[in-house]
Every structure is written in C-alpha cells, then in structure tokens.
Amino acid sequence: MIVHVDMDAFYASIEERDRPELRGLPVIVGGDAQRRGVVSAANYVARSFGVHSAMPAATAKRLCPQGVFLPTRMPHYVDVSCQIREIFGRFTPLVEPLALDEAFLDVTGSSRLFGPPEEIGRTIKTAIHDELQLVASVGIAPNKFLAKLASDLDKPDGFVVVNPKAIHAFLDPLPVTRLWGVGKAAARKLDLIGIQHIAQLRALPRESLADNFGASGDQLWLLANGIDDRDVIPDRDAKSISHETTFAVDVDDMERLRGVLAQLTEQVARRVRAAELRGRTVQLKIRYSDFQTYTRSTKLSQPTDVTDEIWQAAQSMLATRLPERTLAVRLLGIGVSQLDRSKLSQRSLFDDDQRQRSAQLDAAKDKIRNRFGRDSLDRGSSLE
C-alpha cells in the first residue's frame, strides 16, 4: 500500500507556528503587495478571500487587503521538510519526495513492524502534529495515483483510505477533472460527449478514448479504472537530486544569485549525503525573465557528496553563464546526477586532507542541523 502525505498550507503553517500571533489572520507568503511578485502560499483564512498560490501579489492584496504578507524563508522550510522526512524514515526507507511539502511512502513491507497501513498513516500524521505542530492530510491506497487523490479529497487535516476492493466505488462519483491530465480543455471536450464523472468515462471503450485523445486517452482509461503501476522511487534510487527556486521578482544582482545558489547547493548536498550517495555531474539551471531556460553541466573528476566541491562547480557555471545574457533571472536551480553508492569510508584511503576536512565539516553540520534545525548554524549568504 502507498501513503501520500501532503502538508496543509505548508509555508504559511510554518509561519503561523513560529509566530502564534498570526493564528486566525490571513497569512500570505511569498508576495509583496507593493511590488511585482506572486504568492507562494496562503493559509486557509486567506484562501477564504480567494487568495491562492501563483496569484499576483497585487491581486491578493486587492482580494484580501487585511492580509499579512510575509517573505519566503525557503531555507527554513527546507529544514522543516527534512524533519518531516525523518519521521517518514522511521517507518519505511521507500520515500519519494514530490516537493518540500509532500511525499509518497511505500509501506507494503512495514506492516509486520508497525501495523496495517491505516495505523502507519495515522501514526505519521500524529507524529507530525505532536513533534512539529503542523497538520498533514494523508491518503492511503493501492497505488500512487489513488493515494494522492485520496489525500486531496478531505483537506485540511484529512485522512482518507481507499479500500483495494472498492476502487471503482471510490472513483465513480468524482468529476473527471480529478484525473491527472484532465484540465479545462480536456474537460470541455469530454463534456461535449456527455462525460462529467469518472464512472461515465470508465464506461467508454478503451479504443474510443484512444481514438479521441490519442496516447493520453489510453492513460485516461487506466486512471479511470484506478490503474497506476509506478513504483515509489526514493532519493537513494533517483537518477538525480536537485533543488530550484522561482523568484517573486526577477533578480539581476550577482551577489544575491550567488547567495541563493549557495543555499540551494547546501540543500542538494545534504540530501545526497542523507541518501548515502555521491554524484559525478553537477547541473545548473537558469530561467531568464523572457522564460528562456538554459542548463549547463560539469563533470567532476570523481563522485562527491562534499558541499564545497558541488559549490565550486556551481558557482563556476553561474559565473560563465550569466555574462552571456543581459536579462534578469526568474528561476535558479542546481542538481547532482550520475549518482552512485560509493562507500564513504573510501575517503580515508584515497582522499586528500582538504577533502577529508570538508567532508568532516559537512558531517558535523548535518548532525547539528538534523537535531536543531538550519537556524542553529547562521552562515553568510554564500559559501566561500
């Protein structure tokens, strides 16, 4: 069975937790109503005014003039996300993060130690609430599609279990827009042939859907029947590990970009080490204000999980990429790929003194942050 955990209004909930005086107020994270920008998250009070993520901040201000607008504290949210993943790891090593605020867990092999999937899901939900004072919605089902759908049905603070013997009964009354890939255009096309609910869609011949929608039609038929054979892929089995951020306001200041890239690099390196992996290729991703996206990669002389080595490659690519364009940057990302499971103990035999010192420093910082959070180590805006 698969568990999907989705944190409710994650960024805004963290801000409310950290500042109790905000509770009951419309909290809007990531937008600045005085400048061009977009909302990253809104709590449920703000949502009642029509505010939602990706909305222009000026629109959010118009809809909710009394809203409390807060800057995004991405490094802090990343640390809280790591604390949540630590809770997941108590029950299964098969954890696939989708974003900072949601993940799939395969608990098929965990029942002998921790009870049935429903009990595991409730225990995880309770641990997140009791230890981190945050609320999660949980969906439990035989596959990833159904688990995610279940977690979305009863937010916030939801808990929905899909009985493997009652999948059609679960899906039948839901609108077709609940299926992955059915947006407004597809919904209109289905509506023209009298299809509004999943039960109606499933009643159509598979060939008919393929004729009308091509390859996506076959996928619709599978989802309408509750079929999804994708595995949960944890970081340790991933082909790459990456982080990226989209700026509310495009950035053309090199020092700020370096600072953000440094934070992203630390987050990626920390995940690589947590998965007991080392990567040989570092990739930089930049999206400019005209929405053109560029990537550049560097192959290292040997696989690494050392923050400083990843950072040296990242900042070098940033320095050579940016002078080619005069536009400001909208999105910045860093990733590590060509991952392997080289024994970390091999460092003591083959690595030079500087590399060993850097690795030991990373290990010490990880230990402190895992216990006390990122704010326990106050570093500058960039790695030097």
UniProtKB/TrEMBL annotation:
Monomer. GO terms for cellular component: cytosol. The active site is at 102. Its cofactor is Mg(2+). Signal peptide: none annotated. GO terms for molecular function: damaged DNA binding; DNA-directed DNA polymerase activity; magnesium ion binding. The record marks 11 as: Substrate discrimination. Gene3D superfamilies: 3.30.70.270, 3.40.1170.60, 5' to 3' exonuclease, C-terminal subdomain (1.10.150.20), DNA polymerase, Y-family, little finger domain (3.30.1490.100). Belongs to the DNA polymerase type-Y family. Its main location: cytoplasm. Residues 2-183 form the UmuC domain. Binds 2 magnesium ions per subunit. Keywords: Cytoplasm, DNA damage, DNA repair, DNA replication, DNA-binding, DNA-directed DNA polymerase, Magnesium, Metal-binding, Mutator protein, Nucleotidyltransferase, Transferase. It is found in: Cytoplasm. It comes from uncultured planctomycete 3FN. This is DNA polymerase IV. Poorly processive, error-prone DNA polymerase involved in untargeted mutagenesis. Copies undamaged DNA at stalled replication forks, which arise in vivo from mismatched or misaligned primer ends. These misaligned primers can be extended by PolIV. Exhibits no 3'-5' exonuclease (proofreading) activity. May be involved in translesional synthesis, in conjunction with the beta clamp from PolIII. It catalyses: DNA(n) + a 2'-deoxyribonucleoside 5'-triphosphate = DNA(n+1) + diphosphate.
